[in-house]
Amino acid sequence: MSPSLATFADALAGVVGAPNLRRDPDACWPYGYDNSRRHALPALVAHPADHNEVREAIRLCNRFGLPLVARGAGTGTAGAAVPPEGGLVLALDRLNRILQVDPANRLMVVEPGVTNRAVQEAAREHGFFWPPDPTSSDVCTVGGNLACNAAGPRAVKYGTPRENTLALRLITGSGDEMRVGVHTTKGVVGYDLTRLMIGSEGTLGVITEAVLRLTPLPEAKHTLRGIYRDIGAAARAVSAIMGQPVTPCALELMDRRALELVRDRAGASLPADAGALLMIEVDGAAACVDHAAEAVAAAARVDGALQVELAKTPAEVAELWQVRRALSPALRNAAPKKINEDVVVPVSRMPELIAGLEEMGRHHRIDIVNFGHAGNGNIHVNLLFDPEQGDAASRAERCLGDLFDLVLQLEGTLSGEHGIGLVKRDFVASEIGPEALALMHALKSVFDPNGLLNPGKKLPLG
For the whole model, what pTM was predicted? Predict the structure, then answer.
C-alpha cells in the first residue's frame, strides 16, 4: 500500500471505525465482483454505519482523489458494482434500518441496505406492499433496486422504482448532501431529481435514505397458465392481453428452450408439445377478480394456444411459479458462457422481436433462450455458447449486435432493468444521440465534478 493510500485508509478508519474498514486484499476480494462475473480488486472496503459516515467518506475521497463505488448485495448483472481498480468500495450493508412505516400516508422510509424482502415483510404487516419485486428479492437491497431501477414481474401493472419512490436523501460526488422529492403523491416544485437519481447506478450520488410509496395489498389474486404451440403464438397472446382493459399484475413468458431447461427441475406437468408458456396473474377486489381472470383468459386464447388454465389451489399456484423460479438456476449450467440481455420493445412489436430472434439463432448458430416480463415487452435474451468451440464467441458477439439493432428498429431500448454498468456501456451511443449524451456527461460533471463516483459506468467514455 502506497504512503498516500495508507494515509487515506487511516483517515477513513477514523470515520467508519477500524473494524469496519477492510485493507487486506483477501478480505477485499469478495467485494470486487457482481453477478456479471466481472471482477476488479478494490484497494479498500469500508462499511459506513449512517448518512454522516458516508458523507465524510466521500469527502475524503475528494481530498485524496480516490474513486469509489457504492455497493449493495452485488446481484446486478451489468457490472455496475464492479469497483474501479485500486479504488474504494462503500459497502452499505450496515445502513439497513427501516426508519418509518406510515400507513396513513402510504409510505415507508428506509436506508439503502435494507433488503427488498424486509421491506415487503414490514409493509405486509400493515396491509401494503412495495411493487418492485426482482427475482433476487430475498437478498437484493433497496439501494441496488434504485440504482438500476430494477422492477420484476409486477411492474406491468404497478410500475418500477421510479413510479414507487417519493423522495431520496443523498450525497453527491462532491460530498454535498441534499434531499430531493416529496412525501406526497403530488409535487412539481423544481426539477424531478428523484427520478434522475433512480437508475443512475451510483454515478451521480450515493443514496442514504429513500421514501418508498406503498400500495395496498389486493384482496384476491388468480393465477393462470397459458401453453402455446410456439413463442410466436405466445407473443401474439401477450399483445392481445395488453390490448384489453384488464391489466394483469404479472405476465411472464418462457420459450421452448427455456421449458426444456426446467422440465426436469420444475416438478410441474408440461405438455410434450409446449412451445412457449405464459404465467399470468390478475389481482384486485374479491368481487371483481373472477371477471378479470375470465377476460384475460379469453384474450390469451389466440390461435396457437394449446391450454389456458386457472390454478385452483395454492398448491397449484406454487407449482406453476416453480417453473419460472427453476429457470435461473438451470441457465447457470446450460452452457459454458452466457450473454444475458434484458431488451425492451413496445408490446405490439414483440412478435417481430421474437421472429427476429429465431432467425438470428439460426443465422449465427447460437442457442438463444428467451424469457421475461412480457407485459412490459421486457425480454431476457440469453445467448448460450462455448467460447472454446471455434468461432462461437465471435458469432455470439455478432448476434448480440444484430439483436440491439433490431430492438432499436422496433422502437425499443437496450435495457429495461439490468442497467448499463460496464456490460452495455459501449452500446449506449447507438440508442442515445450525441446532443443528449453531451448533456448527460455535463450532468455527471455537475453532480460529481472530480469524476470519482463509479467512474466508467453508465455512459460511454467521452
Answer: 0.94
